[in-house]
């Protein structure tokens, strides 16, 4: 697939340190036009740090950042935006009470007239918004409709359409499907496909392999600040991907611990029942293969609620 | 690629769309209180041109401050120093014109420059400290009031009211622009035109310019607006300058009209302006509202204040009525906002 010689965006051995903390170490990845690169990793894997570097919020401590083959040093997200790297952060930078087209052009309003009579060209804004959204496959009747009345997926589509319209060559999407239901997530994946077919390079950050696998051309896995490698979709199965994501051993270990508590500690059992109920399982018959994938995401959160594992006296 | 058409897009109810406009409540409120006082006080002069003039005059004076306050509140901030700014700038004009013999136009220019500085200071302090503007401007309000009183007392040997502005050079031309009456027989003070011009300017700014879009943006979500490239600091400081300069305009009008200045003039206006803006549909949390709404909010205020006088009731009752209207307006606003967020479903 990589028949083009020059990647749109490339990082080589990029590292980022915050004081003595190694947030990222020796990450390399490339994104070509018309391709979706999925960036996968659990919480704390370094996904956020990497996109903040790519989007110009942070500067890398080491390594090279190339855009269209030339090394770049961004000092602000605006710099990145100016060369064509648009990032749609999780908060989407949208104002719920404002209309769609006013949101679409916020900060870059089209104007007509001159001098003190220069005015916001509302008609042009409405027209372009309608046009761009319909190219993404969304029909709006009223572009003055407050963005707050849109569903999460529709809001994502407006944010993506905005980035595309304002000349993005690379689109970075920060967990666009994280807070969405199954159907909505599907719609957003379709927008990503749209952006790809329009020749953009897309970097899609997620911790959900089920969202990444169908859409990604390449998948880069991060774990504890390091890259586990970049795989073409043909090189890795969905199951392998899920396994690498979940960190299989850790999950099994946790399962044993939980079972132990279930036998010996009523309080832990109560907590466990609660956990299990939340994931739709029964506490008695809990086995690792029955745990949904999102369990790992929450393991830290629930581990905090459990009593300490070391003391024998407790039992 | 198939086109996704939400079923929610299919129905739009024109009545509902009218209802969710920010100013609808204030317009309805103004009509309601007008009808009420037309019935109660219609026989005692409320409907005469003197009656109309009296409530339009009160409303215009409030609107001159309520309109920029509405813009500022849409931008997500409060300004409690506007009352003290009226006293301070009014006194600057009076002292320079009477104690130092300046041409009144020169003292007006100095007062305007002072107002711009007050606005910049307010805006800068709010942005730099990150504290709520409610507190910051409360501080500047007391600083201004205290300093005005103190300095006036020093310059005039203990006075708090400075008279004789009509003796200043240039007074007649200033009177023609700021305090003349229109429509024959000393009927309608020109401040009504000032208020109308201001509402036209503010509405054009808000709805017709990029700057207006930024105001909604910074009030709706300053962080998001900054991320997308809106110069949040500049917008907010300009809005603070707007409230201060309009307060100075009111001070000029009142100085010329009454030919004196009072250090306490304008005290309380900071809250009346907020009331008018909120009655006019401006959201306390920012990001929503209109200048036309604020004007109608001021009109409700004026009709109630003067209507009660014409009805022959103790005038102090108007505060009770205004308080009641404020509470109703806030309830109505939160309901309307809910409708707005559902309107096109």
Could you characterize the architecture of this molecule?
The complex is a heterodimer of chains A (315) and B (345). By secondary structure, chain A is α/β, with parallel strands linked by helices. Helices cover 38% and strands 21% of the residues of chain A. Chain A has helices spanning 47-54, 77-83, 100-104, 122-135, 152-165, 182-197, 209-215, 238-246, 248-264, 266-278, 295-303; strands at 9-18, 21-31, 36-41, 62-67, 70-71, 85-88, 111-112, 119-120, 170-174, 201-206, 218-223, 226-232. The longest helix of chain A is centred in the C-terminal third of the chain and has 17 residues, at 248-264. Chain B is globular, with a radius of gyration of 21 Å. Chain B is mainly alpha-helical and 345 residues long. In chain B, the strands form two sheets. Chain B has a two-stranded antiparallel sheet with strand order 1-4. Chain B has a two-stranded antiparallel sheet with strand order 2-3. Chain B has helices at 14-19, 24-40, 49-74, 82-98, 104-129, 133-156, 171-178, 191-208, 210-220, 222-227, 232-258, 269-279, 291-310, 317-342, and strands at 161-163, 181-182, 188-189, 260-262. In chain B, helix 4 (82-98) packs antiparallel against helix 5, helix 12 packs across helix 13 and helix 13 (291-310) packs antiparallel against helix 14. Chain B starts with 13 loop residues before the first helix and ends with a helix. Chain A binds chain B through residues 77-78, 81, 89, 91-98, 102, 105-109, 111, 118-120, 122, 134, 137-142, 145-146, 148-149, 154, 187, 194, and chain B through 1-6, 9-10, 12, 204, 207-210, 212-214, 216-217, 220-221, 223-225, 227-230, 283, 287-288, 337, 340-345.
């Amino acid at each position: 697939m990589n028949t083009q010689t020059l990647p749109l965006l490339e990082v080589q051995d990029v590292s980022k340190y915050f004081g003595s903390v190694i947030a990222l170490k020796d990450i390399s990845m490339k994104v070509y036009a018309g391709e979706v690169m999925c960036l996968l990793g659990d919480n704390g894997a370094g996904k956020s740090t990497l996109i903040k570097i790519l989007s110009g919020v942070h500067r890398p401590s080491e390594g090279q950042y190339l855009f269209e083959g030339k090394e770049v040093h961004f000092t602000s997200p605006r710099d990145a935006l100016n060369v064509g790297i648009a990032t749609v952060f999780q908060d989407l930078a949208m104002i719920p009470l404002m209309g769609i087209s006013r949101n679409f052009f916020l900060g870059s309003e089209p104007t007509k007239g001159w001098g003190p009579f220069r005015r916001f060209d509302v008609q042009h804004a409405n027209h372009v918004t309608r046009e761009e959204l319909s190219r993404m496959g969304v029909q709006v009747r009223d572009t003055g409709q407050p963005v707050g009345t849109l569903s999460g997926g529709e809001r994502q589509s407006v944010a993506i359409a905005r980035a595309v319209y304002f000349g993005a060559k690379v689109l970075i999407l920060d967990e666009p499907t994280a807070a969405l239901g199954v159907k909505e997530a599907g719609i957003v994946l379709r927008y990503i496909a749209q952006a790809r077919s329009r020749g953009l390079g897309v970097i899609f950050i997620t911790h959900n392999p089920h969202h990444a696998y169908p859409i990604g051309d390449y998948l880069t896995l991060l774990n504890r600040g390091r890259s586990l490698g970049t795989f073409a979709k043909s090189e890795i199965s969905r199951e392998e991907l899920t396994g690498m994501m979940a960190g299989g051993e850790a999950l099994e270990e946790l399962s044993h611990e939980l079972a132990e508590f279930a036998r010996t500690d009523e309080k832990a059992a109560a907590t466990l029942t609660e956990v299990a109920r939340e994931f739709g399982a029964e506490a008695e018959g809990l086995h690792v293969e029955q745990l949904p994938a999102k369990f790992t995401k929450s393991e830290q959160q629930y581990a905090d609620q459990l009593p300490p594992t070391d003391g024998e006296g407790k039992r | 690629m198939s086109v996704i058409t939400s079923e929610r897009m299919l129905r739009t109810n024109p009545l509902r769309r009218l209802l969710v406009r920010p100013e609808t409540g204030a317009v309805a409120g103004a009509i309601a209180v007008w009808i009420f006082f037309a019935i109660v006080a219609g026989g005692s002069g409320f409907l005469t041109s003197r009656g109309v003039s009296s409530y339009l005059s009160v409303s215009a004076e409030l609107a001159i401050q309520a309109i920029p306050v509405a813009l500022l509140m849409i931008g997500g901030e409060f300004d409690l120093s506007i009352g003290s700014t009226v006293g301070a700038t009014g006194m600057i004009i009076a002292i320079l014109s009477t104690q130092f013999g300046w041409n009144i136009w020169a003292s007006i220019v100095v007062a305007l420059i002072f107002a711009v500085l007050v606005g910049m200071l307010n805006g800068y302090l709010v942005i730099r400290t990150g504290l709520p503007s409610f507190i910051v401007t409360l501080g500047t309000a007391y600083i201004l009031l205290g300093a005005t009183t103190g300095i006036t007392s020093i310059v005039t040997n203990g006075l708090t009211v400075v008279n004789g502005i009509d003796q200043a050079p240039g007074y007649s031309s200033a009177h023609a622009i700021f305090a003349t009456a229109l429509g024959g027989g000393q009927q309608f003070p020109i401040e009504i035109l000032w208020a109308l011009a201001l509402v036209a300017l503010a509405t054009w700014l808000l709805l017709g310019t990029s700057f207006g879009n930024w105001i909604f943006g910074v009030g709706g979500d300053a962080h998001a607006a900054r991320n997308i490239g809106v110069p949040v600091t500049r917008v907010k400081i300009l809005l603070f300058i707007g409230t201060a300069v309009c307060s100075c305009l009111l001070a000029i009008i009142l100085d010329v009209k009454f030919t004196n200045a009072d250090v306490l003039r304008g005290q309380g206006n900071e809250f009346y302006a907020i009331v008018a803006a909120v009655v006019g549909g401006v959201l306390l949390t920012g990001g929503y509202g209109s200048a036309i709404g604020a004007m109608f909010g001021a009109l409700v205020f004026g009709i109630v204040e003067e209507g009660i006088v014409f009805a022959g009731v103790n005038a102090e009752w108007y505060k009770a009525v205004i308080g009641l209207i404020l509470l109703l307006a806030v309830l109505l606003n939160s309901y309307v906002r809910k409708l707005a967020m559902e309107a096109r479903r």
